[in-house]
Amino acid sequence: SHMAELVAARMKRPQGWNRPANARRDGPHYDYLVVGAGFAGSVMAERLAADAGKKVLVIDRRPHIAGNAFDRLDDAGILIHQYGPHIFHTNSEDIFAYLSRFTSWRSYEHRVLASVDGMLVPMPINRTTINALYALDLTTEDEVDAFLASRAEPVEVVRTSADVVISKIGRDLYEKFFQGYTRKQWGMDPSELDKSVTARVPTRSNTDDRYFTDKFQVMPRNGFTAMFENMLSHPNIDIELGVDYRDVRERVSFDRLVFTGPVDEYFDYCYGRLPYRSLQFKHETVDTAQFQPVAVINYPEPSVPYTRVTEYKHLTGQRAERTSITYEFPSEEGDPYYPIPRAANQLLYKRYEALADAAEDVLFVGRLATYRYYNMDQVVGQALATYRKLGIGPVVEAAP
Ligand code: FAD
Ligand code: UDP
Q1: What one-character-per-residue DSSP string does 362-396 give?
Q2: What integer pLDDT is reported at residue 20 of this predicted model?
Q3: What percent of the chain has pLDDT over 90?
Q4: Ligand 1 centroid from CA 38, angstroms
Q5: What is the tens place of the pLDDT at every residue in 248-303?
Q6: Do residues 185 and 307 make contact, with C-beta atoms less than 8 angstroms apart?
Q7: Which of 51, 59, 122, 231 sits in a 20 to 30 Å window from 393, CA-based?
C-alpha cells in the first residue's frame, strides 16, 4: 500500500548516515565537501559521485536531508512538509527527466483559494474570482479583460510589486489579494519590493484555477525525502547530519567545496547581513478526514496573523481518518527561507558575489548561496548547469 511504501522508504538509510561527528578525524580524504543536503547540495553530490566518480561528503546542520523540501510522517502517520508546502512544477524536460531517475511521480495540479470578503475564491484571480467578488456574470475573456482594463491604473515605470499589480488589475483587487498578504509575508509594503515578487502570481481572464500552468506538475510518489535518499545513496557519497560547516572544515580533508548555505554567512558577514525572510510553522492534526477543500487557502486579510493554511493530504493523495495542516506565520527571526528581492539587497549580494567568484575551489549553488528567489526546479537546473560547467563528467553519456 501507499502507507507501507512511505514507511519502508523512511527505513532505508544511505550509508554513512548519522555517523558520529568525531568519527573522521583520521577519516578518508574527499574530493568534494558539499555543505547542505537540499536540492542544490544533493544534485551536486549526486552528479559529482555518480557521473564524475568523485568521493563526496555531504553535511547538513539540520538532522535530516532534503533541505526545505524535507517531508516526514508526523505522529498521526500523515506525510507532512516540515517547512511548508512544496509543490513541484517545471517546464523543463531535462530537469523532470533527471529527477525521474530517483522517484516515480503522482500527478498533482495545485489549486489555491483565497479568503476574501467572507468568501473562498480562486487565486490566481480568474474569471470565477471576479464574478464572485463583484456579483458579475462575465462569460468571455474579452469581457474580463475589459473589466480589468477599466480598473487598472496606468503606472509610468513598473518597478515595484505594487506597480506590477495595480497597473494590471487596479487598486481594489490589489488591496484585497496582494497588499495584506505581502505585508505579512515580507514585513514590508509591496511598493518596497521588486516587481518580480508579486509577478510570480498571474491574473487570468479564463476560468483556469490552477496555481501553476507548467508542463510538468507532479509530486514525488513516496515524498521528497525518499527521493533525496535515492539521490544520495551512492557508494561515493558519505553523509553527516547535525553538523555545521564551521565545525567540519578543520576536521575533514577535502579538495573542493560546494557551499549551499547563506553566502553572507560563508564570508562572516564582512559586508553586513543579507536580509532573509523567515517563517514559523504551526503543524496540527485535526480529527476529521478533510479540513479544507483544497491544499492551500491564502489569508490576505491583515486581521489574520498567518498567511496560509496547507492540508497535505491533497498534495500526497494519502488516505487517513485524520488530517494534518500547517499554519504559516512569517517572521523576522529564524532559519533563512526567502531572499528578499529589492534593489538595495541585490547590490549587497553583488558584493558578496564578487567574493564568491574570486573564491578558488568553492562553488556557490542554490537559493541561499546565490540569493535568488528560486523554485525547486530552478535550483536543480542551476546545480546541473554548475556541474556541467566543471567539465569533469564522462565525455559521452551512456545511451539509455
Ligand atoms: P535549502 O533547501 O535551504 O538547503 C540548504 C541546506 O544547507 C539546508 O538544509 C541548511 O540546513 C544547510 N546549511 C546551510 N548552512 C549550513 C552550514 N553552515 N553548515 C551545514 N549546513 C548548512 N519551491 C517550489 O518549487 N515549489 C514550492 O511549492 C515551494 N514552496 C516553498 C515553500 C516555502 C515555505 C519555502 C521556504 C520554499 C518553497 N520553495 C518551493 C522553494 C524551495 O524550498 C527551494 O527552491 C529549495 O528547497 C532550495 O534548495 P537549496 O538546496 O538551495 O536550499
Ligand atoms: N501573493 C499575494 N497574495 C497571494 C499570493 C501571493 O500577495 O494570495 C504575493 C506575495 O507577495 C507572495 C508572492 O506573491 O510572497 C509570491 O507568491 P507565491 O505563492 O509564489 O509565494 P511562495 O509560495 O514562494 O511563498
Answers
A1: EEE-STTTTT----HHHHHHHHHHHHHHHT-S-SS
A2: 40
A3: 91
A4: 6
A5: 999 999 999 999 999 999 999 999 999 999 999 999 999 999 999 999 999 999 99
A6: yes
A7: 59
Ligand whose nearest atom lies closest to the CA of 335: 1
- From the CA of 307, which ligand is nearest? 2
* Ordered structural domains, the chain, with CATH: 2-106+218-274+339-390 (3.40.50.720), 127-200 (no CATH)
Angle at 261 between CA 329 and CA 20, to 5 degrees: 100
pLDDT tens digit sequence for 215-249? 999 999 999 999 999 999 999 999 999 999 999 99
In percent, the amount of the chain with pLDDT more than 70 equals 92
Contacts of 26 (CB under 8 A, 6+ apart): none
Pocket-forming residues, ligand 2, beta carbon under 6 Å: 114, 123, 177-178, 181-182, 185, 197-198, 200-201, 298, 300
For residue 90, give the ligand 1 atom closest to its CA: 25
Contact indicator for 346, 275 with CB cutoff of 8 Å = no
**Integer Cα distance of 138 and 121 in angstroms:** 15
Q: Please report the beta strands in the chain, taking only residues with DSSP state E, as ranges in sequence order.
A: 29-35, 56-60, 71-73, 79-81, 88-90, 105-107, 112-116, 119-123, 216-220, 237-241, 253-259, 276-286, 296-298, 308-311, 323-331, 338-339, 362-364
Residue-level pLDDT at 14: 41
- The Cα–Cα gap between 4 and 14 comes to 19
| Tens digits of residue pLDDT in 22-60 | 444 567 899 999 999 999 999 999 999 999 999 999 999
